[in-house]
């Protein structure tokens, strides 16, 4: 079951970056957003997915099929091509 009904594309992109091992500061810089905004969106995504931790959130996204393994990294599965 896809998370698209629960998370927006920005939240999914953040989860993708987390799955690829990026830190909050790196994600904020890559997405041209503040650390506060990234943290707020992670908290909201965790709440909407009932994830207890960030790794739990990532595992839910992988299990749902929203993140796939492609070219040695996790990418969004057909929703949008994130940088």
Explain the overall architecture.
With 83 residues, the chain is mainly α. It has four helices and two strands; from the N terminus they run ααααββ. The chain has a two-stranded antiparallel ribbon. A hairpin with a 2-residue loop joins strand 1 (67-70) and strand 2 (73-76). The longest helix is centred in the middle third of the chain and has 15 residues, at 35-49. The radius of gyration is 11 Å and the shape is globular. The mean pLDDT is 90.
**Secondary structure tally, helices:** 4
Q: Low-confidence parts, pLDDT < 50 over ≥5 residues?
A: none
Shape: globular
Kindly estimate the percentage of residues that lie in beta strands according to DSSP: 5-15%
Distance between the termini: 24 Å
Helix content: 40-55%
Average pLDDT score: 90
Task: Please render the helix and strand layout as text.
Elements: H1 9-19, H2 24-31, H3 35-49, H4 54-64, E1 67-70, E2 73-76
Helix pairs in contact: 1-3, 1-4, 2-3, 3-4
Short description:
The chain has 83 residues and is mainly alpha-helical. It has helices spanning 9-19, 24-31, 35-49, 54-64, and strands at 67-70, 73-76. The longest helix is centred in the middle third of the chain and has 15 residues, at 35-49.
Question: Which features characterize this protein?
Answer:
4 helices, mainly alpha, 83 residues
């Amino acid at each position: 079951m896809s998370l698209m009904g629960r998370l927006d594309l920005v939240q999914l992109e953040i989860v993708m970056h987390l799955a690829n091992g990026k830190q909050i500061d790196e994600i904020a810089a890559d997405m041209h957003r503040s650390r506060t905004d990234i943290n707020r969106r992670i908290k909201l995504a965790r709440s909407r997915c009932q994830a207890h931790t960030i790794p739990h959130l990532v595992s839910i996204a992988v299990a749902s099929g929203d993140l796939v393994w492609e070219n040695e990294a996790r990418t969004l599965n057909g929703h949008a091509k994130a940088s």
